[in-house]
Amino acid sequence: MAVMPRILALAVMLLAPGAAAAQGAVVGSAAPDFTLRLLGGGEVRLAEFRGHPVLVNFWATWCPPCRTEMPRLVAADSAHQAEGLVVIAVNLTDQERRRDVAKFVAEYRMNFPVALDERGRIRSLYRLRGAPTSVFVDSAGIVRLVQQGPLSDDDLARGLAAILPAR
Predict the structure, then answer these.
(1) Given CB 3.0 to 4.6 Å as the disulfide criterion, which of 33, 70, 80, 147 pairs with 85?
(2) What whole-number distance in Å separates Cα of residue 17 and Cα of residue 19?
(3) What would the mean pLDDT of 49-78 be, rounded to a whole number?
(4) C-alpha gyration radius of the chain
(5) End-to-end distance of the chain based on CA atoms, in angstroms?
(6) What is the CATH number of domain 23-163?
(7) How distant is the alpha carbon of residue 84 from its chain centre?
(8) Rounded to the nearest 5°, which phi and psi values hold at 54?
């Protein structure tokens, strides 16, 4: 019988409001670090970009809202390179074919790192509820905004304002 209270206590801890902060993209907390293979070869690690504002976008080729927002991300990457913005596009590769990812990247002229979440580990780490999801991380590595669903122009402007240096 002594085991049951321990199990109950563990369940309460895991379901407590603060438990979600242990993992996931939580505003005001450090962005969970990850290392992923890149579509073009090599690897990318989020921690490598400490000192830069970073926009991490989780997407998939089969996701219509991802297609709608990608031109905004490409334009933001181009417009804010001088301010040190880094865009990392994390593809949910565990849910699609790599050749479809390569075709999408070419179609949208994505010139930023395209990371492949081949096992869904980063999706789980960030506790994604759906695609697209964008996580705005400041130069200190702190999550400043999490946008679930497609980015509108206003959402993108608000997220960038939270992480880019003041003009």
Answers:
(1) 80
(2) 6
(3) 97
(4) 17
(5) 63
(6) 3.40.30.10
(7) 17
(8) -130, 135
